[in-house]
Write a structure and sequence with these properties.
The structure is a homodimer.
Chain A lengths: L2 H14 L6 H12 L4 E2 H7 L7 H13 L3 E5 L5 E5 L7 E6 L5 E8 L12 E12 L5
Parallel strand pairs in A: 4-6
Antiparallel strand pairs in A: 1-3, 2-3, 4-5
Helix pairs in contact in A: 1-2, 2-4
The complex binds manganese (II) ion (2 copies) and zinc ion (2 copies).
One zinc ion binds next to loops of chain A.
Chain A binds a DNA duplex through helix 4.
Chain lengths: 140, 140
DNA sequence: GGTGCAGATGCAACCCTGTTGCGCTTGCAG
DNA sequence: CTGCAAGCGCAACAGGGTTGCATCTGCACC
């Protein structure tokens, strides 16, 4: 998404929550919208380098965005979370995780199966994640 | 698995690798065999509390067991790895992760689908993980 | 356009999971 | 038995994320 459009969309979505509209929230959501792929905390810090936002504030803003349903948190094997703007439902498709560089992306064309009908006694299924692991184009 | 049997099986498997047979390797593998479910580093430390093993050694032994194919490493959303004795292939079935307590267990009856045939240009799929998230019996 | 205050921010210090470096110990081949 | 490569324990470190607390600010209310 273009810079200008990202800023406008971010402003509209943050306003729509009815919660406080702050520069950090606007800037972080716009940064997520500008990137297509899932971004780690570290990558976002770099994107926001000009007039940087505090490390902790960035964590808190990301939590808030996830809590508001404006962002998704994807956990990957390298123990670092990735975030995407909530343009899509991420429970309906699989995600790819590069074994080499840790990059994460949505495999929109790979659908996830439905929740398993039979669970062990007392267990309740709430969600399903399908992760394809391998080597990305950049690392091949 | 019973304590006595776990020790015997562990001894046989460690010997069979042709590598050095050390007390730490025997004790850790036996601990994994005694537990049915996936165990975190922390849980294993507690299991081995009597005459404890060094924290770093435990990490190194777990790495070694995984490298030898005697244990599987399962990564979960709480950023702590879990380990199981390699009695089963863990790429063929789904895993359950409790959203509340972090417990992980094998859903042997839930089979994973085959690797997706079509991947984005330049991407190579090597493995597939299916994770069901929800609330476990203990947390319900 | 003020004003008050809940809630957001920045900073420092912290926690958890896992690693690295290095000197000492030990399994085991010969 | 002996030598030594491999394994072990300890201390220090690293990355990713959290907590406590003082200060600042969006915005509801006037
Ligand atoms: Mn997705
Ligand atoms: Mn399994
Ligand atoms: Zn890659
Ligand atoms: Zn639970």
């Amino acid at each position: 998404m273009q810079r200008r459009q990202a800023e406008q969309v971010a402003a509209a979505r943050v306003r729509a929550t009815g919660e406080r509209v702050t520069p950090a929230r606007l800037r972080v959501l716009a940064a997520l919208l500008r990137r297509g792929e899932a971004a780690s905390h570290h990558e976002l810090e770099r994107d926001l380098a000009a007039d940087a936002i505090d490390r902790v504030t960035l964590y808190r803003v990301l939590d808030w965005l996830v809590g508001q349903g404006l962002a998704h948190r994807i956990s990957s094997a390298d123990r670092a979370w990735r975030f995407t703007a909530a343009d899509r439902r991420h429970d309906a498709h699989a995600h790819f995780h590069c074994n080499r560089c840790g990059k994460v992306l949505c495999l929109d064309e790979v659908k996830t199966p439905r929740l398993p009908a039979a669970m062990p006694r007392g267990f309740r299924a709430e969600g399903l994640e399908v992760t394809v692991k391998g080597i990305c184009a950049g690392c091949a």
